[in-house]
Amino acid sequence: MARKSSPGWSGSGGLLKWLGLALLVVLADQLSKVLIVGFYQLGESTLVSSFFNLVRVHNSGAAFSFLAGASGWQRWFFSAVGVLAAVLIVWLLKSHPGQKLFAFALACILGGAIGNVIDRLLYGYVVDFLQFHWRWLAPVFPGGYFPAFNLADSAITIGAACLILDELLRVRRAH
To answer: Can you give the pTM of this predicted structure?
Structure first.
């Protein structure tokens, strides 16, 4: 079903707002990674609470270190996927800037994707540093440690959740 843009949000003005949000995500992500790289050695961590650490980890793969052990081709593959996703997302944002939740979701995903592509191009891996751990995770993750992630990953996850919510709301309105 086609999406319609609401008045006042169409045109480049609406697009620029969403691209601005994506840029804020990229800047926050890259600033946080510069701080981690500047203050932590690889593998070094700080216990912040009983369930949260700051840790410097390098992920040469994708989510949950998928393909991290590959021979290096994955750097370029995941960079290309990120760039292609960014192009598609910008096109979708340009086509639907008035769909506020939809565009918010896409802007978050765009900012996160670009943030991680920057890491891959600069370092050959993604810098992760947020690490949560709970005993109840132990059956799934060694020691109960959820894989470390970063702000870009968080933005992508928030964006994905918002895309699901947007679709659920759209289907509900259609009925």
So the answer is: 0.84
